[in-house]
Specification:
By secondary structure, the chain is α+β, with helices and mostly antiparallel strands. 26% of the residues lie in helices and 21% in strands. The chain has a nine-stranded mixed β-sheet. Strands 1-2 form a two-stranded antiparallel ribbon. Strands 3-4 form a two-stranded antiparallel ribbon. β11, α6 and β12 form a beta-alpha-beta unit.
Length: 301
């Protein structure tokens, strides 16, 4: 009986102690394995995640960087989205350049004349005048002023011009001599083609000299056919027009082959009064010395 009273007294004392502990502010203590409570004030195990010397650590958001830390610059070489550097645009293909010669250059010059960028020629030689004309054409259209005709410059010129006629291609002369008329193939002949605007001096079918010539206008045409040299006059002056006609070789009435300073100065912009004009004075002087009275003259298309 007495023993039961003692047990009840102990239980009552423990209950009062528990209430006093809670009121006094004690914290619940973790129970170690084996049922032993950790001593009050002990820190967490250093090996535990988030442990700190001042108590339980506050959790950090995943991926958060410490305050004041600058983000690392992205590695451009490692980025999957990085684009390769653009290749430089290749320069347009060069078609004609200073020093070139030939038919293509002659066509270029004829087209430049159509748009009033070139006033001489065409000569078929890409010289300083052609270079300056190309630079002017390029600069007017916002193209690089190289003076060299590249594919872009040529394309712009083609769109602004028409295909040159034969007369435009040889506005300054220089045409290859036309095929000789069959009547030129025997004897001593001044073989004169209106198609190629050339005079070829031939002996027994052999070509000895070729020079540019100019003819009369539609109102004073040069007659066509087979003629002979009637007479020669080295320092002739026209009795009708009162103009010099040096190295004149008359073949059909008042029509003659002779030197023309007007032809030398103006080219095919002018015309004769029916005569066959020669503009190369050295050639006409040489021809005058070779041709004889009675030699044949053939004028043909």
């Amino acid at each position: 009986m007495r023993t039961a009273v003692i047990r009840n007294s102990i239980r009552a004392s423990l209950s009062v102690a528990g209430v006093l502990a809670l009121v006094g502010g004690c914290t619940a203590q973790a129970v170690q394995s084996g049922g032993h409570a950790k001593p009050s004030g002990t820190t967490a195990d250093a090996s535990s995640p988030g442990a700190s010397s001042s108590g339980a650590a506050s959790p950090k958001p995943s991926g958060t960087k410490p305050a004041g830390t600058k983000p690392a610059a992205p590695d451009a070489g490692a980025s999957d989205d990085a684009k390769p550097a653009a290749s430089p645009t290749p320069a347009p293909r060069t078609l004609y350049k200073p020093g070139d010669r030939g038919k293509g250059v002659r066509e270029l010059q004829a087209r430049l004349r159509q748009v009033a960028w070139l006033f001489e020629g065409p000569t078929g030689t890409y010289g300083p005048a052609t270079t300056q004309a190309v630079k002017g054409f390029q600069g007017k259209r916002g193209l690089p002023k190289t003076g060299t005709t590249d594919a872009v410059t040529w394309d712009r010129l083609l769109k602004m011009t028409h295909e040159p006629t034969r007369d435009e291609l040889y506005a300054a002369g220089g045409q290859p001599a036309a095929k000789p008329d069959p009547r030129c193939m025997t004897g001593r002949v001044m073989c004169i083609s209106k198609t190629s605007r050339t005079l070829t001096w031939m002996i027994d079918g052999k070509r000895l000299m070729t020079t540019d010539v100019r003819f009369g206008s539609q109102y004073t045409p040069t007659r066509e056919g087979v003629f002979h040299v009637d007479f020669k006059s080295r320092h002739h002056v026209s009795t009708i027009y009162h103009t010099p006609m040096p190295y004149a070789m008359f073949f059909s009435g008042g029509q003659a082959v002779h030197y023309s300073s007007d032809f030398a100065a103006r080219g095919y912009a002018g015309a004769s009064h029916g005569c066959v004009n020669v503009r190369d004075e050295a050639k006409i002087a040489s021809l005058f010395n070779q041709v004889r009275t009675g030699d044949k003259v053939v004028v043909y298309w």
